């Protein structure tokens, strides 16, 4: 099929103002009657065309009359109808097969036929799998939804909107109706039906609206929903306080499912969550996962305004809601937890997922210009880079200015399907600033390189910082424009103190931190009255999503690592220095960087005042994927080995005795503290144990085995298991067997059991993955399980997956083919693990290309997987 292009956008010729949906629900077959109140655009002379996929059409009437067979045609997923007028009512009745739906898009069954429940997933284009409709986000309608089903099998019936009655029907059946008064696009429609339990809470919004908050899940996990309910309440309060955004229905339902293609879905009034991002209890949830639950609950809730009340005109604008909502979630999480740590985590993710995406053949702009399968564009670029673009705008406007702009944005666009231009216009106008130059960021793929060079003129006490930018070419974009890059900076003296800044033309002279904007290819900024040759701290807080190239001497980075008061940039200096140390080991260069890195960290290690979590972050060099990005002809086995030896050097420099003593001082208290202090301790304890394992394996393994046995909570237990398994300790097998038995009926915990083993480094990984595929608990049909084993292997275990003999690729490609037949979205997503293939060394590169090309040559590949493979091979 031809790609869909942004430049081809036309407003809909036909709109739907109101929809009535009646469902007769059943596991094997369900029937849907849809009554659409149509509105025609006078300016366009187009026949009525509705989207519909995999629908068995049972009947069709227009304005109450059965349509003659010649008056409609259904081909290529489009139903075309003659004779419709403005104001016509079209009624269709279709049959669906939920239990046979393995793609988990549209109406499907979660869990077993006997005990499972029915649910829907519509974003992006699932609604057309439920009924005939103009399935595009700029068609906004009110929804009246009536669900009918057997009461015994489906005691709970839910849809988005406010409850509007329930009742009994003949033959043991019952019904429930929901009315959503807020016009919404079809992708926000949802229903759930089955046996579910709930916990609930009353909530009153700041503007005085009483709301019932309800969390639903299968009975055996309902007591694990409390943390999410608390998080929801925190998110609702935060949005009231921060943006004056109130919830707008009488009920807010949230449902957990184990069968879900992504993290969660913001359907109006009826959020649906992958259980992984909703359920939490100390025995099966790690600290990181607790924070992820809080973040995803907030993210979906925030969509109620950034996404639902103001939605997207077309799918090219996806980042309008996703980038903005990620940004809102990041600000919320920073307020709830440690802000510098949150920033470090987010930037790590950006680099690991988005920079790598941007550096490979799947690179695309935050607002892509074309796609074949929109589900392939729910990417780190649209989400994470999109959030960075909002952050830059927010930084430019300041706290109050951004709030003013957001007020304007919501007010102007409430109930509308908007564009990224609408967003920048509202924010700009509310502040009398022209934000249109920011659009350049949205249209260009690739991560800009920011070069910085400093010159100190000792005689004139003048420091000149010359910044230049360059964005490498990407497919279809050979030449890039300069983009406005805000660089937040400070200058440090040799004693580690910040120097006052006197920048020409800058108002706040004498401050120690300032922002300069580079909006041209190159520019020099001159600082006066600089008493000594400074060390610049650049891009503080990661003020722009760029790759900074600055030829710091190792001791300068060490100075920032030791003294920078910007928690993020302190970590960042350590990352830069570690990367330099890595390069030195790889190239046999001089020892200055490794020595500076180890010395600085060894000194920080003994500093009592440093936050445990930050110290753990400082002790972690960039990951193997990021390191691979820094060089052509990457050999993942060698990168793994070099990174290990770098860590070993660090461990030796700190010393086994100091590591051991620190470990003991962090050993678990009897009560599990889920607060920041407890989380920080566990994070550092794990890091210390991992380092100790590199220089005193026997002792570390014994400590890990004991930690496993005595652990309070999943964080310590999983950390210990991971240390044992990755290092192939003799105690590993017993711990794995124990974990397996203990969590036999806990799907989310078992996923971790698969993940730990999928990350065994190097050669042994493949055989382990193959053995685990034969495990009775392994299935390709459950996305979480498939991701846990195959996704982890291919995306998070470079030395295991990228074998020189190509056997990892062959196995993975085979599984992708099988998965594609079941669930194209998941197959396409997992396939992106190949995205970095062009930067591999020649032998692996050829093996990867061969595996992908063979896969692409198979018959009946989905549009999803076909597009991803085609793009990667282009
Ligand atoms: N909007 C959904 C993602 C839908 C993905 C469709 N393939 C979740 C979120 O971003 O909040
Ligand atoms: Zn989202």
UniProtKB/TrEMBL annotation:
Residues 446-550 form the Peptidase M1 alanyl aminopeptidase Ig-like fold domain. InterPro entries: Aminopeptidase_N-like_N (IPR045357), Aminopeptidase_N-like_N_sf (IPR042097), PepN_Ig-like_sf (IPR038438), Peptidase_M1 (IPR001930), Peptidase_M1_dom (IPR014782), Peptidase_M1_pepN (IPR012779), Peptidase_M1_pepN_C (IPR024601), Peptidase_M1_pepN_C_sf (IPR037144). Residues 227-435 form the Peptidase M1 membrane alanine aminopeptidase domain. This is Aminopeptidase N. One of its GO terms (biological process) is proteolysis. Keywords: Aminopeptidase, Hydrolase, Metal-binding, Metalloprotease, Protease, Zinc. The keyword Acyltransferase does not apply. It catalyses: Release of an N-terminal amino acid, Xaa-|-Yaa- from a peptide, amide or arylamide. Xaa is preferably Ala, but may be most amino acids including Pro (slow action). When a terminal hydrophobic residue is followed by a prolyl residue, the two may be released as an intact Xaa-Pro dipeptide. GO terms for molecular function: alanyl aminopeptidase activity; metallopeptidase activity; zinc ion binding. The lineage of its organism: Bacteria, Pseudomonadati, Pseudomonadota, Gammaproteobacteria, Lysobacterales. Its EC number is 3.4.11.2. Residues 555-873 form the Peptidase M1 alanyl aminopeptidase C-terminal domain. It holds the Pfam family DUF3458_C. Belongs to the peptidase M1 family. Residues 101-188 form the Aminopeptidase N-like N-terminal domain.
């Amino acid at each position: 099929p031809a790609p869909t292009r942004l430049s081809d956008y036309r407003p809909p010729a036909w709109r739907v103002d109101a929809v009535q949906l009646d469902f007769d629900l059943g596991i094997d077959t369900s029937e849907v009657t849809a009554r659409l109140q149509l509105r025609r655009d006078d300016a366009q002379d187009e026949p009525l065309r509705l989207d519909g996929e995999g629908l068995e059409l049972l009947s069709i009437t227009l304005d109450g009359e059965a349509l003659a067979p010649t008056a409609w045609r259904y081909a290529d997923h489009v139903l075309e109808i003659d004779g419709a007028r403005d104001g016509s009512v079209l009624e269709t009745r279709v049959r669906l097969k939920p239990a046979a739906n393995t793609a988990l898009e549209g109406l499907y069954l979660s869990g077993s036929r006997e005990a499972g429940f029915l649910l829907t997933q519509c974003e992006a284009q699932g609604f057309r799998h439920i009924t005939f409709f103009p399935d595009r986000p700029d068609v906004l309608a009110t929804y009246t939804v009536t669900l009918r089903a057997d009461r015994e099998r489906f005691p709970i019936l839910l849809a988005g909107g406010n409850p509007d009655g329930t009742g009994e029907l003949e033959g043991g059946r019952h019904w429930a109706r929901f009315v959503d008064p807020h016009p919404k696009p079809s992708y926000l429609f949802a229903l759930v039906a089955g046996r579910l339990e709930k916990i609930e809470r009353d909530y009153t919004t700041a503007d005085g609206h009483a709301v019932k908050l309800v969390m639903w899940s299968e009975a055996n996990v309902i007591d694990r929903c409390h943390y999410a309910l608390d998080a929801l309440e925190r998110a609702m309060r935060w949005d009231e306080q921060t943006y004056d955004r109130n919830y707008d229905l009488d009920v807010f339902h949230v449902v957990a499912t184990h069968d879900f293609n992504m993290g969660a879905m913001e359907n109006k009034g009826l959020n649906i969550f992958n259980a992984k991002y909703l359920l939490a209890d100390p025995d099966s949830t790690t600290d990181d996962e607790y924070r992820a639950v809080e973040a995803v609950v907030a993210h979906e809730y925030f969509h109620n305004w950034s996404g639902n009340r103001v939605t997207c005109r077309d799918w090219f604008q996806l980042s309008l809601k996703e980038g903005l909502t990620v940004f809102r979630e990041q600000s919320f999480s920073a307020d709830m937890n440690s802000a510098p740590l949150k920033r470090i985590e987010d930037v790590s993710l950006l680099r690991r997922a988005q920079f790598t995406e941007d550096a490979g053949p799947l690179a695309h702009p935050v607002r892509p210009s074309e796609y074949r399968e929109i589900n392939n564009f729910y990417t780190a670029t649209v989400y994470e880079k999109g959030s960075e673009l909002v952050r830059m705008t927010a930084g430019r406007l300041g706290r109050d200015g951004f709030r003013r702009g957001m007020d304007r944005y919501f007010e102007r666009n409430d109930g509308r399907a908007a564009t990224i231009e609408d967003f920048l216009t509202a924010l700009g106008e509310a502040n009398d600033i022209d934000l249109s130059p920011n659009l350049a960021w949205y249209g260009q793929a690739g991560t800009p390189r920011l070069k910085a060079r400093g010159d100190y003129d000792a005689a004139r006490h003048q420091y000149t910082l010359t910044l230049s930018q360059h964005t490498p070419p990407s497919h279809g974009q050979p030449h890039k424009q300069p983009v406005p890059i805000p660089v937040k900076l400070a200058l440090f003296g040799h004693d580690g103190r910040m120097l006052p800044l006197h920048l020409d033309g800058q108002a706040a002279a004498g401050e120690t931190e300032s922002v300069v904007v580079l909006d041209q290819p190159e520019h020099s900024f001159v600082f006066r009255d600089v008493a000594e040759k400074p060390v610049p701290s650049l891009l503080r807080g990661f003020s722009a999503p760029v790759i900074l190239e600055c030829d710091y001497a190792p001791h300068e980075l060490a100075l920032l690592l030791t003294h920078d008061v910007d928690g993020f940039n302190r970590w960042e200096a350590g990352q830069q220095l570690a990367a330099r140390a890595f390069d030195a080991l790889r190239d046999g260069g001089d020892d200055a960087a490794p020595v500076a890195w180890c010395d600085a960290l060894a000194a920080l290690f003994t500093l009592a005042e440093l936050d445990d979590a930050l110290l753990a972050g400082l002790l972690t060099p960039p990951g193997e994927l990021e390191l691979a990005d820094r060089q052509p002809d990457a050999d993942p086995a060698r990168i793994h080995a070099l990174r290990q030896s770098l860590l070993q050097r660090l461990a030796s420099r700190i010393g086994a005795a100091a590591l051991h003593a620190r470990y003991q001082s962090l050993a678990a208290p009897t009560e599990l503290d889920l607060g920041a202090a407890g989380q920080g301790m566990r994070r550092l304890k794990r890091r210390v144990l991992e380092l100790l394992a590199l220089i005193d394996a026997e002792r570390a393994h014994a400590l890990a085995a004991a930690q496993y046995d005595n652990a309070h909570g999943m964080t310590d237990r999983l950390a210990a298991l991971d240390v044992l398994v990755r290092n192939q300790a003799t105690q590993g097998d017993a711990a794995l067997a124990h974990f397996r038995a203990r969590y036999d009926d806990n799907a989310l915990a078992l996923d971790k059991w698969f993940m730990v083993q999928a990350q065994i480094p190097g050669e042994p990984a493949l055989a382990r993955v193959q053995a685990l595929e034969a495990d009775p608990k392994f299935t390709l049909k459950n996305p979480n399980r498939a991701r846990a084993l195959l996704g982890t292997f291919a995306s998070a275990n470079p030395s295991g997956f990228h074998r020189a003999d190509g056997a990892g690729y062959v196995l993975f490609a085979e599984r992708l083919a099988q998965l594609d037949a079941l669930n194209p979205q998941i197959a396409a997503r997992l396939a992106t693990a190949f995205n970095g293939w062009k930067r591999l060394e020649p032998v692996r590169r050829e093996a990867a290309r061969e595996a992908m090309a063979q896969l692409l040559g198979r018959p009946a590949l989905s549009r999803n997987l076909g597009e991803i493979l085609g793009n990667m091979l282009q």
